[in-house]
Amino acid sequence: MGGHGMRIFVAGATGAMGVPLVKHLVAAGHHVTGMTRSESKRSLLEGLSATAVVADVFNRERLGAVLREAKPDVVVHLLTALPKLGPVRPADLVATNRLRIEGTKNLVEAAISAGARRLVAESIVLVYGYGDHGSTLLTEEAPVARTSPRPWLQPTIDAGLALEETVLSAARSGRLEGVVLRFGFIYGAGAGSTEGMVAMMKKRRMPLIGEGSGVWSWIHVNDAAEATLAAIERGRSGAVYNIVDDEPVTWRDYLNHAARVLGAPSPFRLPLWLARLASPYAAISLTSRFAVSNARARRELNWRPVYPTYREGLATLSR
């Protein structure tokens, strides 16, 4: 792909990842059109030197019109609808699930009609499934989850898989170069879940569940944006890439380190049985073990995280 001065359309341009991505794209010399659902965010995008369009992905006619007008070479799909401070129960994911299923179909169709040649879409490592994946790093070849330990977890995974299938089937049919990015858990300034965590830690309300032995693979929001830029320029059509940092970490280590960085009290311990009663969703997601490999993204996208571990990434919060 490559080449400077591409026309890039970013759907979900004002989200936690959209804003740094738009900055990176503009800095790399691309012409960016950013889509937002809300008129009030138009000035934010214009302030980043992007062209702003207000449209809803569920309004297919309007979506088609804004894409035809933007004439993009590449479309980036970052649409989510998570609560400001991140999801804490399955109900918080329903709107995003619909975006991933219906919204992706609409966006892919509109991109093809507008003559775009590539679409890069944001998926998530949750598609490997909740639960204990052990300590072997999950590569993109690892099986995805078709069933879940709790039936109410599956709709979120199914929505991610539907997004991936829509993008990859467009790639297989040759109608579009489709690239899927399976992001780890995004953190950093501007990410709602990080702001929620910081606020809770300062009040000593962020619990460590059980032994805190759940393992997550994180990605700093700026590294997520850099990886998306690399996928726009160098991603292989039909490929899936895990976008995570170099070191999966236990919740115990992550939260204790965050407390030191923030000068916050150490997190309190919540027994697992109590967590399961209080928040079954948090209990399962925070005790799952997702140790994910970024080897393919490093190799094929020639991408390296600037914040290789949570320690470098969390250090940015104290500034």
Please outline the helices and strands.
Blueprint: E1 7-11, H1 18-27, E2 31-36, H2 42-47, E3 51-54, H3 60-70, E4 74-77, H4 94-113, E5 118-124, H5 154-172, E6 177-183, E7 185-187, H6 192-202, E8 207-209, E9 215-216, E10 218-220, H7 221-234, E11 240-243, E12 249-250, H8 251-262, E13 268-270, H9 272-278, H10 280-287, H11 295-301, H12 310-315
Parallel strand pairs: 1-2, 1-4, 2-3, 4-5, 5-6, 6-11, 7-10, 8-13
Antiparallel strand pairs: 9-12
Helix pairs in contact: 1-7, 3-4, 4-5, 9-10
InterPro entries: Epimerase_deHydtase, NAD(P)-bd_dom_sf, NAD(P)-dependent_oxidoreduct
Protein name: NAD-dependent epimerase/dehydratase family protein
Organism: Archangium minus
CATH class label of the domain at 7-188 and 218-244 and 293-306: Alpha Beta
- Rg value: 19 Å
- How big a fraction of the residues is strand? 15-25%
Which fold name is given in CATH as the topology of the domain at 7-188 and 218-244 and 293-306?
Rossmann fold
Query: Main beta sheet, described?
Result: 7 strands, parallel
Quick one: how many beta strands? 13
Mean of pLDDT: 95
Can you tell me the CATH superfamily of the domain at 7-188 and 218-244 and 293-306?
NAD(P)-binding Rossmann-like Domain
Instruction: Note the run of SSEs as H and E.
Output: EHEHEHEHEHEEHEEEHEEHEHHHH
Helix content: 40-55%
- SS class: alpha/beta
Which residues sit in consecutive blocks of at least 5 with pLDDT less than 50?
Answer: none
Number of helices, where a helix is a run of at least 4 consecutive DSSP H or I residues: 12
The CATH architecture of the domain at 7-188 and 218-244 and 293-306 is 3-Layer(aba) Sandwich
The main sheet orders its strands as 3-2-1-4-5-6-11
The backbone outline, from C-alpha atoms, is globular
Termini separation comes to 37 Å
